[in-house]
Amino acid sequence: MGRIFEKRKHKMFARFDKMAKAFTRIGKDIAIAVKQAGPNPDNNPKLRMAIQNAKGVNMPKDRVESAIKRASSKEEKDFQEVVYEGYTPHGVPVVVECATDNPTRTVANIRLHFSKNGGNMGNSGSVAFLFERKGVFKFDPSKLNLAELELDLIDAGAEDIQQDEEEITILTKFADFGHFQ
User: Fold this and answer.
1) DSSP 131-180
2) What is the mean pLDDT of residues 19-37?
3) Does pTM top 0.85 for this prediction?
4) Which residue has the higher pLDDT, 74 or 65?
5) Is residue 51 scored above 80 in pLDDT?
6) Burial class for 21, CB neighbours closer than 10 Å (0-12, 13-18, 19+)
7) How many angstroms separate the CA atoms of 31 and 27, rounded?
8) Domains of the chain (ranges plus CATH)?
9) Can you tell me the distance from the alpha carbon of 56 to that of 48, in angstroms, rounded to the nearest whole number?
10) pLDDT by residue (tens digit) across 139-156?
11) Of 125, 71, 53, 69, whose CA–CA distance to 93 is shortest?
12) What's the rounded Cα separation, in Å, for the pair 175 and 25?
């Protein structure tokens, strides 16, 4: 075929590999969201976010719909969201959130990575009290008038509003927007 084809083939296959990994990850996100709150994106904010992420990586619409349909079926295996805690070599606390279909394999992999890099896993609850989950929204200040919106944002649950030249950052409670924990 020629050298040019070989170079193109290498680039194409590298791009296809990245796309396949992204599609698989988003398919798992869709499956988790459907199992938690149902297949209707209007009633399921986590599914809505996963669909938006799928559009962001140019995942075809039929693949998204088939992932939703596959997750809605009863034969589909369940993905569990698990949280592991530990410390890095200098005592810095770390919280690792995972989605897995096999928690035994996942805990072994997490423990391997901690021990390989000089850290150690902690017990459940040993680190989590140090962290607080927050929702973070970032907006372009040229498109918003913050003076008008500030009171509405506080009524909607905004805890902190920070304004820079490049962006407006709004911090909220994580449970207020899209995830119920």
Assistant:
1) ---EEEEEE-GGG--HHHHHHHHHHHTEEEEEE-SS-EEEEEEGGGTT--
2) 88
3) no
4) 65
5) yes
6) exposed
7) 6
8) 3-72 (1.10.10.200), 80-129 (3.30.70.980), 133-176 (no CATH)
9) 12
10) 887 777 777 777 877 777
11) 125
12) 23
